[in-house]
Amino acid sequence: MEQRCWRAGVSADAAKGRAGNPAFEQSQQYLFDRLAAAGLSPRFETFADSSTGWEQVTGTLRLGGPAGEVVLSRDRHRVALAINSVSTPAGGTSFKLVDAGTGTSAAAYEGKDVRGAVVLASGSLGGAWQQAVRNRGAALARRTRSCGWMRFAAASSGSRTTPKTPSACW
Question: What pTM does this model have?
Answer without folding.
Answer: 0.50
